[in-house]
Design a protein that fits this description.
The protein has 9 helices and 12 strands. The protein is of the alpha/beta class. Strands 3-2-1-4-7 form a 5-stranded mixed sheet. A 5-stranded mixed sheet has the order 10-9-8-11-12, with helices on both faces. A two-stranded antiparallel ribbon has the order 5-6. The longest helix has 25 residues, at about 225-250. The relative contact order is 0.16.
């Protein structure tokens, strides 16, 4: 069995054929149009046709999209990275240009589903995937099913508030965990830390905004302030995961995103803080993904195959 997986991002639309073992073939990509929502639909449809022509098969299609969908996954409620996709009839417009059966899901849910079917979450019954990127995304699998809640927004872990007096989030909330762990907020935090630091730090040598690659680089170089910031991040992440676990009682948590390239610096302190803030005996596995950028394609295709 095979399906096509499409991953729609703000910069690139990627797609490929995926078989039941997670083998990817006929991979292709196009630049995401910045002109209109309909132009993005046309770009997706053209990519699907290209992949179908290469594979010489008419296959079911899973489409992962960055943004929030309504309960039946037919209307795009909000998609900050895609022009014209606010309250947009996504499924209707796709079905006008694509003849094959289409299954649509949120990109973080697709990453979680791909991890669950083909990756570190395989065999899990109570599973959480956390993607740490520009923001913080998540997906929850309970008893082999993707959990999306009563109205379709279940699993939005990045917007769980951990501080009522905390930072203002782009979602309009306050103290969202995304504001403490998302890469979009890191550079400003580093600037503030440098301003309040009495010693010397190599973090002040960067001429561009500091990102997680810069931060972990200086952690490895032994910079005191970099280590202080990193340890604070790992404490927040471990504490947050323990809080989520108190609610769901997970058997597996998988961490994904660019930050996991430094999993050797990450997993041990996260686990220590997870255990520290867990009031009950825990046997939860905390792992880092083995995928690079293909989780969205794999998850979208797997979702189409399963449905």
């Amino acid at each position: 069995m095979k399906a096509i997986g499409i991953d729609v991002g703000g910069q690139t639309i990627k797609g490929a054929v995926v078989d039941e073992n997670g083998k990817i073939s006929h991979e292709s990509r196009v630049v995401t149009p910045k002109t209109s929502g309909i132009d993005v639909i046309t770009a997706i449809a053209d990519l699907v046709k290209e992949i179908q022509n290469k594979s010489e098969e008419k296959l079911p299609i899973g489409i992962a999209v960055a943004g929030m969908l309504n309960k039946d996954s037919r209307v795009m409620l909000t998609a900050p990275q895609i022009v014209g996709w606010k309250n947009f009839p996504l499924a209707d417009e796709l079905e006008k240009q694509i003849e094959s059966k289409i299954f649509i899901l949120n990109d973080a849910n697709a990453a979680a589903f791909g991890e669950f079917i083909f990756g570190q979450g395989k065999g899990s019954e109570k599973f959480l995937s956390i993607t740490l990127g520009t923001g913080v995304g998540g997906g929850i699998i309970l008893d082999d099913k993707l959990f999306t809640g009563a109205f379709g927004s279940g699993g939005e872990v990045g917007h769980v508030s951990i501080d009522l007096n905390g930072k203002k989030c782009n979602c309009g909330g306050v103290g969202c965990v995304e504001t403490y762990l998302g890469a979009a907020y890191l550079a400003q935090e580093v600037e503030e830390e440098i301003a309040n630091y009495d010693g010397k730090t190599t973090l002040s040598n960067f001429t561009e905004p500091v990102n997680y690659h810069h931060l972990t680089q200086e952690v490895r170089n032994g910079d005191e302030l970099a280590n202080k910031i990193w340890n604070k991040k790992m404490k927040i992440l471990g504490h947050f995961l323990a809080s989520v676990n108190n609610l769901i009682d997970l058997d597996t948590i998988v961490l994904a995103g660019g930050i996991t390239q430094s999993k050797d610096l990450m997993l041990e302190p996260v686990k220590i803080n997870f255990d520290k803030y867990s009031p009950f005996i825990r046997q939860t596995n905390i792992l880092a993904t083995n995928f690079s950028n293909e989780a969205g394609i794999l998850g979208a295709a797997a979702f189409a195959l399963k449905n």
